[in-house]
Records
---
Amino acid sequence: MTSASPGNTRTPSLSHRFPRDFLWGAATAAYQVEGAAAEGGRTPSIWDTFSHTPGKVAAGHTGDTAADHYHRYRDDVRLMRDLGIGAYRFSISWPRVQPTGRGPAVQQGLDFYRRLTDTLLDAGIEPVATLYHWDLPQELEDAGGWPERATADRFADYAALLTDTLGDRIGLWTTLNEPWCSAFLGYGSGVHAPGRTEPAATLRAAHHLNLAHGKAVGVLRERLPATARISITLNLHQVNARTDSAADRDAARRIDAVGNRVFTGPLLDGAYPEDLLADTGQLLDWERLVHDGDLTEISRPIDVLGVNYYAPTIVSRPDSGTGDSGDDGHGSGAHSPWTGAEDIAFHPAAGKRTAMGWSIDPDGLHTLLTGLARSHPRLPLMVTENGAAFDDRPDAEGRVHDPDRIAYLHDHLAAVHRAIADGADVRGYFLWSLMDNFEWAYGYAKRFGAVYVDYATQTRTPKSSAHWYAEVIARGGLGRG
Ligand code: IFM
């Protein structure tokens, strides 16, 4: 997952058919869309606490109402059906199902996800459930959160609670979404909930997230039908050294270690990489952290690896200038999320950027997917998130034209197609996001949706990109084919 600096993006010729059984999806996450924060027995998660803390989220936005998906899910499913979307990747809110993170499930919470799932199935849309997309019950954070080993056990118990109600109707399960963000943004830079800035706790959180995944895989395998597929989604960084110098290549290695291999190492290869242990050994005692048997548990086989990709990561050696004011694309807090590699410099790629300020490099997605196919040839892959925020606004007729998003999606889908042609076993693609939603520390200002949400009225308006995506799905690929 490291390579030389990206070149220009390339728009390949327009006739790319995808495999017949390719899954065409759209994704959301509970706290970003559901709202109904205090309904049905739900209690606060770390994101409720964080967003209600002044200064943590832009404009003081919270997920209290979000896109009101909790009440409008039927309309949203109808919208997806009309667009021809084949799979919906949503997340289950832990505090809606098990408010304190311990003990029995709340029936109303389970019922919501059962209704959502049944509505999807009735509409011919495959439900794809993520167990954890960052909304840890606040009570578990009060007990120490992810840096505490016990949180991994709580997660396994929570996973078990879901299987009785949903196990017979959901075929594809994801344990965690982007554990890098949970650990490194939540406990490192503090730009995400719970907002802690503790380097050792960051690495402890990463290990316990890995362990939580492994324990949940064990529980799910035991309790789900044999046909169920189990996955984890990682936001793997496609790390590029700015130059081919030894110092820049070493910077890329260090970011790859703490951005990618801290997860892929134990999950896919059964060990933490030696260089990561050496780079971070002064921060904590890994031998005490990793108990006997942990790595066996963490590396339980999965059926699919979910890959989220948005932008490349370009780095150079320490003291080589920050290029882009040190912003690594995750918000510029006072603390670096790159635990043990805080001195590395980050740079934008040449060319256009999205409203997040993220560089656009579809080739990075191709490199990432083909690299994984080479390193783990028998592991099916799925692009579980890809998309872009732009400053969308309705025109006088109320239509929302988003040509930049169409170009972004087109070029990234073409990159996926190329990766498949080059041997990567990519089974599906989920656009992030179905609709505009709460973009974490950026609040509602950043719009990633293919569907525009007017938050004052909760009216949904499919943007041009939604209609374009519907055509791609109907055609089974890009262009006329
Ligand atoms: O909105 C997020 C999502 O929750 C996780 N992946 C990245 C998206 C865009 O920042």
Note: Residues 29, 32, 178, 308, 385, 432, 439, 448 surround 5-hydroxymethyl-3,4-dihydroxypiperidine (CB under 6 Å).
---
Amino acid sequence: MTEQRGNWTSSAGFILAATGSAIGLGNLWKFPFITWENNGGAFVLVYLVCIAAVGLPIMMAELLIGRKTQQSAVGALKEAVGPAWGLVGLWGVLCGFTLLSYYTVIAGWSLYFFAKTAGWMVGGFPTGTSLGQVFTEQSANGGLQIALSLGFSVATVSVVYFGVQKGIEKIARLFLPVLFVILALLFMVSFAMDGSREALTFIFRPSFNELDGGSVLEALGHAFFTLSLGMGAMITYGSYIARNQSVVKASGIIVLLDTVIALVATVIMFTVIFTAGMQDQVGDTGTVGMLFISLPQLFFAEGIVPGGAVLAPLFYVLVALAALTSTMSLLEVVTSYIIDEHGIERGKATLACGGVVFLFTILAALSFGGADFASNLSAPGRLGDLLFAGKTSWFGMADHFVSNWMLPTGGLAITVAVGWFMTREATESELVDETVPGWFNYNTWRFFIRYISPAAVAAIVVAVLFFGVDFS
Ligand code: PFF
């Protein structure tokens, strides 16, 4: 079966695809919001340390398992570490499945807001419009939510259907440069705005008295999410790397790009918010509020964002592209497992996986008021009440399960597998070759993957299990 597997056509193609997986709603939606909640500065610094000390070594670990075995998550862990470790891969597949099922719903919102803002760009912003109301109405409209997420799912399936080279790599090569250009444009515009200085100070000036243990764990948990680690996505993408392409160099570039993009997006959003003097209201609208309520309003407000009416739809194109390059990696984790382990041909496997995931997407899409059985799970005796910390909706429950349970436990298992159950020779021969960059030191990496990363991830697991910390 190995002979039929695709490979990336080049190192650049692979790096773009993996960077596309990493850059997503986590960068544009979650990171700015948690930075806001944790008062910037010190939190950002801690996040950067987590990315370098935990994210980067695990990125290398996942990619090396993939490249070594040339198999998707389950087969790769079985072959590289031992038959029982296939279960960890299976846990990752389940995690990819669950995350994809609700990620698509938020991605669908970007389509809606693209259409809305494009309409306002042409027809003018209707005075007196309450963006909070626009948001609530669209998210509570079950039919609309299903249609939007169906549209997004079809796009994701269409890419994965065509495989690694003709689907995933092609779309990443096409869309990531567009994404970079749109972001650069917005970044430049933000520097012309009054609030940019205040935003930069908020983001980059650390004041450590604002920080507590919970913030540190949140930064660590987010490092996993944003780099697509802990569930086999990077193992899967790594399995398409040709033998002559360096894992170390690629990891460095992917991690760096993901981090820069998260910071740039945060600078842009905070500049807009500070320019409008909206600091007090942002927190009230919650995680989704910043991206889908505060920002669209500010793009159209007089005298805040120069050219805002044109930039608004562009901004939602950016969100949609970032989300698509992530959803395709999630679907690839599930599909490649079915292809490799069950010998099903790619076209059929993609359609089947996409179809089954969508059944759960329907539940997530109806979670915002579309249907009582999906929105109101915290009623006494229902699932949210019984099992998931009183989460009110199917969406909230799925996010809770993935962010708190699946990613940290999967991540812990992967670090232990690579650090303690693979031999030094096995990992060294994958990481150190003639392409290895000068900054890399194998012994340092091994120390981090054996001690620092498992200890850090174990801290998250303990916090979730015993102290009721909630990362969703
Ligand atoms: N890294 C993506 C983001 O920041 O939005 C989320 C993600 C995608 C996580 C793919 C895991 C994954 F396999």
Note: The chain has one domain: 2-361.
